[in-house]
Amino acid sequence: MITRDQYAKELGAYLYYAAVKGVEVAERDEEVEEMLRMAEEELRKRYTLESLREDPKVQAYRKFMWRIGIDPTKVRPASEALARRALRSSLPNINSLVDLGNAVSVRRLVPIGIYDLDKTAGKMELRKAEEGEPFLPIGRGEVRLEGRELVLADEEGVMHLFPYRDSRRTMVTLETKNALVAAAGVPGVPEEEVRKAVEEILEFLKKRGAEVGEVVRTP
């Protein structure tokens, strides 16, 4: 179970999440890539870069980031960052599991994180960052947190800066066999949308033979 501290509860931040066992991660997957391209095409029919900013979900995640002192015009919520990139060009292929999460995130405009469960340690909590706490993001060097951020952490440290950046330590690779799928919710975003984002990923993985767990909301 992922718990929340008082800071997360006061902010109204939460996760819907589920564990998946026996996943097969490939470098490329035609079906997933088709899902990603279709999500991009749907997005371009609905939005421009200008109109995307007016979407209620985009506005809700932006408002949340302002509330914790992070400028969302400089550091984008993960779903908005993906959507903006898709509107400009197209999203890169990372691997089949990450691409699946990105396709659903772009379609639903909900931030989704997928983590290698075998690289996590002990209990997990959605909590306030500690001042000076180290974090090693994907694609960047180590940073020290200021103490106002909201993080998903296990007993070894930070896995995710909510709702915009993941850790290199627990990222999905071609060797990943067991995963945690999590979608980030904030005030102003319908909880049903957050839950369905996780369920959509689980449904796909179940068809591929993975064992999927129950979708749970942080208490």
β-strand number: 12
Q: How would a crystallographer describe the biggest sheet?
A: 5 strands, mixed
Gyration radius over CA: 16 Å
Order of helices and strands: EHEHHHHHEEEEEEEEHEE
Q: At the fourth CATH level, what is the homologous superfamily? A: Phenylalanyl-trna Synthetase, Chain B, domain 3
Overall description:
With 219 residues, the protein is of the alpha+beta class. The chain has one domain (2-217): Phenylalanyl-tRNA Synthetase, Chain B, domain 3, CATH 3.50.40.10. It contains 7 helices and 12 strands. The chain has helices spanning 6-11, 30-46, 49-52, 56-67, 78-88, 96-108, 191-207, and strands at residues 2-4, 14-21, 112-116, 124-128, 134-135, 143-144, 150-154, 157-161, 165-166, 178-185, 211-212, 216-217. A 5-stranded mixed β-sheet has the order 1-4-7-8-9. Strands 2, 3, 10, 11 and 12 form a 5-stranded antiparallel β-sheet that branches. Strand 7 and strand 8 form a beta hairpin. Helix 6 (96-108) packs antiparallel against helix 7.
Strand and helix map with partners:
Blueprint: E1 2-4, H1 6-11, E2 14-21, H2 30-46, H3 49-52, H4 56-67, H5 78-88, H6 96-108, E3 112-116, E4 124-128, E5 134-135, E6 143-144, E7 150-154, E8 157-161, E9 165-166, E10 178-185, H7 191-207, E11 211-212, E12 216-217
Parallel strand pairs: 1-4
Antiparallel strand pairs: 2-10, 2-11, 2-12, 3-10, 4-7, 5-6, 7-8, 8-9
Helix pairs in contact: 2-6, 5-6, 6-7
